[in-house]
Amino acid sequence: CPQLYFPRSSGINAEYGGYVFKNRHDMCVIDIKKTWEKLLLAARVIASIENPADVCVISSRNFGQRAVLKFASHTGATPIAGRFTPGTFTNQIQAAFREPRLLVVTDPRADHQAIVESSYVNIPVISFCNTDSPTKYVDIAIPCNINTINSVGLMWWLLAREVKRMRGDISRITEWEIMPDLYFYREETKEEEEEATVPDVQPAADTYNAAPAVPDGFAAIEPAATAEPVSMLAPNSTFPAKEEWVATETTTAGADWGADGNADWGASDTVVDWAA
User: Rounded to an integer, what distance in angstroms lies between the CA atom of residue 188 and that of residue 2?
Assistant: First the structure.
């Protein structure tokens, strides 16, 4: 089992003395029975939360980000994959502020910021731990190997399966249809990266204005003038026809509109006494 063995680099903490089955040169063999007991305890605590969204699962390491997202999709928890924003649990004015009731982390050393903030607001913490991981502010430590891809994915898969079984979503008699491989971190190979690249799109040929093809042995023929496309014609006007205001010849064309030579337009024949 990949979760049993952990390469000992900095020794064993005193808190994990009861969880180590034996030491094998530079390897620590973890007691699988103790790991399973702690896993069931953590699953029981997660299943006791009424609202699954109040459980916050965190992983800042690449090995656990895929597992955290899959765990959240299967159990309804709230995932935080990647960098943890400081103040998520304490700063109420930021957009990423959350108030979970339970915190589950992948590595207590890598996710120390979330664990410290949870201690300020009294949020219980469940964590997967190595034999040399710090346990400060960790309420339930699940001893396992968190340094390999398969171990991290397998432990998250086991935890998700037990949570669903305790909630009654799946039966203990039948196997869960979700495979553990779905929780494993996958590194993209060079072939997958090349397939994921967007192919270069060549511009389409301009066939509308292109001249007709000339068969071999014949001179180039000028394209015949074609009528303007219907879509380019101006639409018919809905206004009435314009009237022509051109003066027409009348019988008075030769009339003299000037004043009559014998008429006095400035005075009248009647004498008016303006002083009266």
Answer: 22
pLDDT digits (tens, 9 = 90+) for 45-87: 999 999 999 999 999 888 888 999 999 999 999 999 888 889 8
Q: Is 276 helix (H, G, I), strand (E, B) or coil?
A: coil
d(CA 144, CA 146): 6
Cα–Cα distance for residue pair 237/243, rounded to 1 Å: 15
d(CA 160, CA 120): 27
Report the distance separating Cα 177 and Cα 203, nearest Å. Answer: 47
Say yes or no to pLDDT of 220 above 60: no
Separation CA 89–CA 78 (nearest Å): 13
Task: Report long-range pairs for 127-133 (Cβ below 8 Å, ≥24 apart).
Answer: 128/152, 128/155, 129/16, 130/6, 131/6, 131/8, 131/12, 131/13, 131/16, 131/19, 131/20, 131/28, 131/30, 132/8, 132/9, 132/10, 132/11, 132/12, 132/13, 132/16, 133/13, 133/107, 133/108, 133/109
Runs of H (alpha helix) within 76-146: 112-120
pTM (two decimals): 0.63
| Dist. CA 63–CA 126, nearest whole Å | 18
* H or E element, residue 30: strand 27-30
Of 38, 71, 45, 56, give the one whose Cα is nearest residue 103.
Answer: 56
In this structure, are residues 107 and 61 in contact, taking their beta carbons and an 8 Å threshold? yes
- Can you tell me which residue has the tokens 């072939």? 191
Output the six-digit token pair for 275.
Answer: 């002083």
Contact 110, 147 (CB under 8 A): no
Sign for the pseudo-dihedral over CA of 105, 109, 112, 118: positive
Is residue 135 within 8 A of residue 129, CB to CB? The reply is yes
**What are the helix (H) ranges across 14-76?**
32-47, 62-75
